Amino acid sequence: MVRLSENSRNRSHFLNLRARETLLWLALLLTLTVLLPLSSAVGQTQTLYPTDDAYICHGSPDYNTGTEPALIIRNEYGSGGSSGWACDALVKFDLSQYPNQTITSAKLKLRYYEWYDNDPAGRVLKLFRNTADWHELSVTWNNQPGYLAQPTSSCAVPGATETWMEWDVTTDVQAMLQGSISNYGWHLLDDNYWGEGNIPIIRFRSKEYGTTYSPRLEIDGGTSQPYYFVHITDPHVVALSQAQLRWAMVIERIKAMNSAPAFVLCTGDLVDYGQGLLGIANYDALKWYLREQGGTLYIDDAHSIPIYFCPGNHDSRTLLQLVPTYSFDNYHSLIGPNYYMVKIRDCAIFSLNTGSDIWPYPGWPWWPCPGDIGIPESDGLSNGYSNEVSQFPIDLDNLDGIANGTDNSQYYKIVLIHQPYYTGSDRDGVFWNNGDSFRDACNTYTVDLALCGHIHNWSTLPPAPGCNTNFVITHAIAYDMSYRRIDVNPGNPYRGGLTVEPPTRITSTLAIIVSCRAEVDVYDHNGNHDGPDSAGAIEINIPYSYYSHWVADDDSLNFHFTHTEISLFKEDTTDYTLVFKSLSDDSMRITLATNLVSGLTNTAVYAKIPVDSGSVATLRASHSEFDYVIDIDDNGDGIPDRHILPDSLTGFRGDANGDGVINVSDVVYLINYLFISGPAPNPLEAGDCNCDGSVNVSDVVYLINYLFISGPPPGC
Question: Among 45, 249, 478, 546, which lies 20 to 30 A Cα-Cα from 89?
Answer without folding.
Answer: 45
